[in-house]
């Protein structure tokens, strides 16, 4: 029997207002709940009152339009994720809301914000707003690295202790301290170049020149990954394998996530872009691997000639030695690129992303005096139209208002999992 009273209704409205400024991604068509909108719980009473018999019904029997109206009033991503997990009918009725809000957030990992804040912030591409990301107090001074799986890696610069954090659900898992070879005279500077990815089997971390290492939560130490390349600049997990990219040569090595044995090596295609002025990324999906190579998007426009090349290799079963074939672009997808990796999101009318485009996040320094002493770092985002080779600068509004220290940490894209 469903019972709803006036106190519960008031508590729901109050809780909705308090949650409006926490981690969420509203999307371009939503707004903070207001008093002029229909009262969803009151509509629920009407729905139940219209039933025959003893006025009882299952939660899964709620009308789809009512479920959709409730989902539309949820302002936190965590609330929407829990809402969609109730039953298949609720998941179906809230599908449009989940699609609209499944737009990557850009983690701005400035530590401590002057020593007064523990939580970090993420920039919402959908509506140019900053969201708070709750971080456990003990990790307040750690470096944070996001992933498109929703997990984040926290690393303390002092002792290189590592922790997995899942802000959407408030979970965390301890990891051993990073390999001692990752440290040095200046750990903060070293950590700027760390790359990693999460998998259900464990975590892989790497730094250029240091090799790649694997561990599971609860392990006492990291194990070296069976990859001959020490110049790993990108790590991507997909369907049981880690894909390691050597950014210097553009060679890709696939490592089995359970055995850590090398499954295959994909030699680089012929490239005419010199290594000193190019950026390379891989995008891995269940049926293909994309290698995306471009001239660097220099903030000061030092490089004026833009070049982009896309190559595809099959991930079909039994294809142990795939080769690259050049393709025109990424089709109806948008690619999100940061210092660690690249991943694709389907561009739709609901999420408002631009098809066949690349969203590139980075950080830059700016000198504010004539002597080069006052140096600040700030975060940037640009959109590269792959077909036209034109760029649009997104570094305005709330994103441009966030400053970081001159020893900046790279921003990284995070994709909320609402499914």
Shape descriptor: globular
Estimated radius of gyration? 23 Å
Counted by DSSP, the helix tally is 8
Structural class: alpha+beta
How would you describe what is shown here?
With 419 residues, the protein is of the alpha+beta class. The protein is built from eight helices and 26 strands. The strands form six sheets. Strands 20, 21, 22, 23, 24 and 25 form a six-stranded mixed beta sheet that branches. The chain has a four-stranded antiparallel beta sheet with strand order 3-2-1-26. A four-stranded antiparallel beta sheet has the order 4-5-6-7, with no helix packed on it. A hairpin with a 4-residue loop joins β8 and β9. It is globular and about 65 Å long.
Write the layout of secondary structure elements.
Blueprint lengths: L5 H13 L21 H10 L14 H10 L3 H8 L3 H6 L1 H7 L3 E4 L11 E5 L4 E5 L9 E3 L6 E4 L6 E5 L4 E5 L11 H5 L3 E4 L4 E5 L3 E5 L7 E2 L7 E7 L2 E6 L4 E6 L5 E5 L11 E8 L2 E8 L12 E7 L10 E3 L5 E5 L4 E5 L10 E11 L7 E11 L4 E4 L3 H4 L2 E2 L7 E3 L5
Parallel strand pairs: 20-22
Antiparallel strand pairs: 1-2, 1-26, 2-3, 4-5, 5-6, 6-7, 8-9, 9-10, 10-11, 12-13, 13-14, 14-15, 16-17, 17-18, 18-19, 20-21, 22-23, 23-24, 23-25
């Amino acid at each position: 029997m469903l019972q709803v009273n006036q106190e519960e209704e008031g508590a729901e409205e109050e809780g909705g207002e308090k949650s409006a400024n926490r981690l969420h991604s509203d999307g371009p068509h939503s707004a903070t709940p207001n008093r002029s909108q229909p009262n969803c719980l009151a509509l629920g009473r009407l729905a139940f009152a219209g039933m025959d018999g003893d006025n009882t019904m299952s939660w899964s029997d709620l009308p789809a339009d009512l479920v959709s109206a409730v989902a539309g009033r949820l302002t936190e991503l965590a609330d929407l994720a829990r809402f969609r997990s109730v039953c298949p009918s609720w998941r179906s009725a809230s599908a449009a809301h989940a699609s609209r809000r499944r737009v990557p957030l850009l983690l701005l990992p400035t530590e401590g914000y002057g020593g007064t804040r523990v939580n970090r912030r993420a920039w919402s591409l959908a509506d140019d707003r900053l969201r708070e990301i709750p971080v456990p107090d003990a990790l307040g001074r750690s470096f944070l690295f996001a992933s498109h799986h929703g997990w984040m890696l926290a690393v303390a610069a002092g002792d290189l202790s590592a922790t997995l954090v899942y802000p959407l659900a408030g979970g965390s898992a301890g990891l051993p301290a990073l390999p001692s070879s990752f440290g040095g005279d200046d750990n903060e500077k070293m950590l700027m170049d760390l790359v990693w990815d999460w998998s259900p089997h464990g975590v892989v971390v790497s730094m250029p020149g240091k090799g790649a290492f694997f561990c599971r939560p609860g392990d006492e130490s990291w194990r070296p990954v069976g990859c001959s390349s020490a110049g790993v600049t990108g790590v991507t997990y997909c369907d049981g394998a880690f894909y390691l990219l050597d950014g210097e040569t553009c060679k890709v090595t696939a490592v089995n996530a359970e055995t850590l044995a090398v499954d295959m090596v994909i030699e680089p295609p012929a490239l005419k872009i010199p290594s000193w002025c190019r950026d390379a990324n891989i995008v891995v999906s269940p049926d293909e691997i994309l290698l995306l190579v471009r001239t660097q998007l220099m903030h000061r426009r030092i490089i004026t000639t833009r070049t982009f090349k896309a190559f595809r290799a099959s991930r079909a079963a039994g294809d142990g030695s795939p080769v690259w074939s050049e393709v025109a672009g990424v089709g109806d997808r948008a690619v999100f690129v940061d210092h660690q990796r690249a991943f694709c999101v389907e561009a739709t009318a609901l999420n408002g992303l631009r098809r066949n485009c690349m969203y590139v996040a980075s950080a830059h320094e700016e000198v504010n005096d004539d002597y080069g002493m006052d140096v600040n770092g700030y975060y940037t985002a640009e959109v590269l139209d792959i077909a036209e080779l034109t760029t649009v600068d997104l570094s305005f509004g709330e994103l441009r208002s966030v400053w970081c220290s001159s020893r900046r940490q790279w921003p990284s894209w995070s994709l909320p999992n609402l499914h």
